[in-house]
Design brief:
Length: 316
């Protein structure tokens, strides 16, 4: 099987970090298997290209690289809203027409909007630039408080951290949750965040060490097959239910109940990929009680059934 070809389209001055997000996700193969992606970089004008870090990077390929890409990523654009050259927008539209997936990280959304790929569609960008994007492109339905928006053929993310979330989400869509988790573990990343989570915490100050939810999350994740109510979580954390719910919102941008459901769906995905357990048994192991409930949650969460998901991503 030929690796899925991912090409990042860069522009001077390029943020090295925004480029490294897709580079690390798609360009590093797990040690225990063949690479499923190839990763390359192109620019309108190949050669030395300035970066925001004060050094130049050398780009070998021009826009012709987009003609063979399966996924095209625009990893930011400086300054935000600066007009993209006509050759760039033309190349992006051509890649999209022939079926390539077009992805923007952070301010790369401005370039996709200039190419007309976001007209009439939901999109997001870094929270500092949402007002600017909305004013410049009123035909785009801007989502200001989400990490990423994925339409299948076109996707946009908020800031660079959310760009990693989006890239891992795309890997899950391509190859399943277990493969994406292997990449995340290699990058020493926590469990993935859903695109609907908030871009940033309600309170900008970091949590104190004794306020971190990490120990509680680890404890709950290892007990998904048990009854985990808000009261039980709060008791384990030594907090009131109201205080715990507030900390979830502040630190994770979601509620305890939604976080638990996300973990259970993820655990079910891995079991469907890596075991031949009946759906009823999968539901019991992840704390969703019954096959009927698992099917209902799966369809609402992923738009498919457990059986169809297993047929697509089964590793056995």
């Amino acid at each position: 099987m030929c690796p899925h070809r991912v090409v990042a389209l860069v522009n001077p001055p390029q943020s090295p970090f925004e480029l490294s997000c897709p580079g690390e996700v798609f360009g590093t193969a797990p040690l225990d298997g063949p690479p499923r992606y190839s990763f390359g970089v192109c620019a309108e004008n190949p050669g030395p290209l300035p970066t925001t870090a004060g050094y130049a990077m050398v780009v070998d390929a021009g826009l012709e690289a987009l003609e063979h890409a399966d996924t095209v990523i625009v990893p930011g654009w400086q300054p935000p809203g600066a007009p993209a050259p006509p050759a760039v927008t033309t190349a992006l539209r051509a890649a999209h027409r022939r079926g390539a997936r077009i992805v923007a990280i952070c301010t790369g959304a401005f370039v996709l909007a200039q190419a007309g790929l976001l007209d009439g569609r939901r999109a997001t960008t870094h929270w500092r630039h949402t007002t600017q994007l909305a004013a410049a492109f009123p035909q785009v339905h801007l989502e200001q408080d989400v990490l990423f928006v994925d339409h299948g053929d076109v996707a946009t993310s908020a800031g660079t951290g959310a760009g990693i979330d989006l890239c891992l989400h795309l890997v899950r869509c391509d190859h399943g949750a277990a493969y994406a988790a292997r990449i995340a573990r290699n990058m020493v990343l926590p469990p993935h965040r859903e695109g609907s989570q908030l871009q940033y915490a309600v309170q900008p100050a970091p949590a104190k060490a004794d306020e971190s939810l990490a120990p509680l999350l680890e404890w709950a994740t290892s007990r998904l097959d048990t009854r985990l109510t808000l009261d039980r979580l709060a008791e384990r954390a030594g907090l009131s239910s109201r205080t715990l719910a507030r900390r979830f919102t502040e630190q994770l941008g979601t509620s305890p109940g939604q976080w638990l459901l996300d973990q259970r769906i993820d655990a079910a995905r891995v079991l469907l990929e890596q075991t031949d357990l009946p759906v009823e048994a999968v539901a019991a192991r992840v704390g969703l009680a019954s096959a009927v409930n698992l099917r209902r949650r799966f369809r609402a969460h992923l738009g498919t059934t457990p059986g169809a998901y297993r047929r697509t991503f089964s590793q056995i």
